[in-house]
């Protein structure tokens, strides 16, 4: 009976009213589905004891810190960038895609391995350099909690060792490393929660850019010049890193980054 009455009323509407109704109905379904997916991801994460404890300990403080940074809580979109020589990991945020990013916090990287230069093979103890994104949430990591990075990315797959390029690169706790990016346990708890909320808000690809140095620091530049003066291929690689660094410094937004058939980064 209900469907019959609904159909009769529906037929009386002008075509544009029908279209408006259908668009509204579809949008409502998408919004409801997205909200449920967001809630279920957070609920799933809170089912892990470490995440639940971190949430209870850090949530209120993070909300206050976000407010002071003029960012809305919970996080909507974040950007992570790391500087190997400076042992720093920055977390940037913004409320929507039209806004510029704002710096939320800088964490100290508490252990290092390898040297300047990209990772090119398994067992080289190198921290990667390049443009990545978070591809895994690991709440039960042996290193407290961990966020996976998609190394080897499409560029690494072409330029690194074809058989054993390496894998399992994480931002994690416990302050030990063989090529990952470790921070203190309380810091990875904060970052894990922030990333989880951003992912739940729809940010499927949280960018993580790993730079060798800060290209606007003279001491860093001198070190890099001395370390890489004879490495022609690395110099080409560095030119792309420099472009992305400068672009973000000027605009507080990210350029489009692609990979050529030769594995070279292409910036738009």
Question: What characteristics describe this protein?
Answer:
268 residues, alpha+beta, L,D-transpeptidase catalytic domain-like, eight-stranded mixed sheet, 7 helices, 10 strands, disordered N terminus
Question: Brief description of this entry?
Answer:
Strands 3-2-1-8-4-5-6-7 form an 8-stranded mixed beta sheet, covered by helices on one side. Strands 9-10 form a two-stranded antiparallel ribbon. Mean pLDDT is 90; it is low at 1-6 and 21-35.
What is the topology?
Blueprint: H1 2-12, H2 15-46, H3 49-68, E1 77-83, E2 88-94, E3 102-108, E4 130-138, E5 146-149, H4 154-159, E6 169-172, E7 181-182, H5 185-200, E8 207-211, H6 218-228, H7 232-251, E9 257-259, E10 265-267
Parallel strand pairs: 1-8, 6-7
Antiparallel strand pairs: 1-2, 2-3, 4-5, 4-8, 5-6, 9-10
Helix pairs in contact: 2-5, 3-5
Characterization of this structure:
- By secondary structure, the protein is α+β, with helices and mostly antiparallel strands.
- It has helices at residues 2-12, 15-46, 49-68, 154-159, 185-200, 218-228, 232-251; strands spanning 77-83, 88-94, 102-108, 130-138, 146-149, 169-172, 181-182, 207-211, 257-259, 265-267.
- It has two domains: 2-44; 48-259, L,D-transpeptidase catalytic domain-like (Beta Barrel), CATH 2.40.440.
- The strands form two sheets. An eight-stranded mixed β-sheet has the order 3-2-1-8-4-5-6-7, covered by helices on one side. A two-stranded antiparallel ribbon has the order 9-10.
- Helix 3 (49-68) crosses helix 5.
- It starts with a helix and ends with a strand.
